[in-house]
Amino acid sequence: MVHSKIVIATVRRAEGNIKLLAPQLLYYEVIATAQYYKLPIDSVSQLLNQQIKYNLPLIETTEKHRSKAIEIVQMGHPPSGYPSIYDAIFHAIAVIENGIFVTADRKHFVKANTIGHITMLETWEKQLFS
């Protein structure tokens, strides 16, 4: 399923620096979005591979990450729906790795912000540098 929202990888402070982390799922989400918007897949893949190589490590999720993601997908209620597993795994990584999930998905934010470790894209700098 292709989403028109922006998903930014999990970020955390590491000795005063910002470290980006994302599940391997990120690669497939970016390619699917590029395909949906009819962007040149080869160029998008090359750019993404460069980012992964130099400053965006894609990590294998652990059982702790997956368990937290399952907890997150159960937040919400039938009338408004539940968080997607795709967003929840990013958020779970932030929780387990003591980071912050930066998202533009207001629906996910509203449903899952009670566990913390999340900020909206428009306020991420304030959250990370305050």
Secondary structure: elements and pairs:
Blueprint: E1 7-14, E2 17-23, H1 25-36, H2 41-54, E3 58-59, H3 63-73, H4 85-96, E4 100-103, H5 106-112, E5 118-120, H6 124-129
Parallel strand pairs: 2-3, 4-5
Antiparallel strand pairs: 1-2, 1-4
* Beta fraction: 15-25%
The main β sheet shows up as:
5 strands, mixed
* CATH fold-level topology: Rossmann fold
For the secondary structure, the number of strands is 5
> Kindly, what is the distance between the CA atoms of the first and last residues, rounded to a whole number of angstroms?
35 Å
Nearest-integer average pLDDT = 86
Q: Give the overall shape.
A: globular
Strand order of the largest sheet: 3-2-1-4-5
Q: What class do helices, strands and sheet pairing give?
A: alpha/beta
CATH homologous superfamily, by name? 5'-nuclease
> How many domains in all?
1
SSE topology string: EEHHEHHEHEH
What CATH architecture label applies?
A: 3-Layer(aba) Sandwich
- Tally the helices: 6
Low-pLDDT runs of 5+ residues are 1-6
Explain the overall architecture:
The protein is α/β, with parallel strands linked by helices and 130 residues long. The chain is built from 6 helices and 5 strands. The protein has helices spanning 25-36, 41-54, 63-73, 85-96, 106-112, 124-129; strands spanning 7-14, 17-23, 58-59, 100-103, 118-120. It has a 5-stranded mixed beta sheet with strand order 3-2-1-4-5, sandwiched between helices. It starts with 6 loop residues before the first strand and ends with a helix.
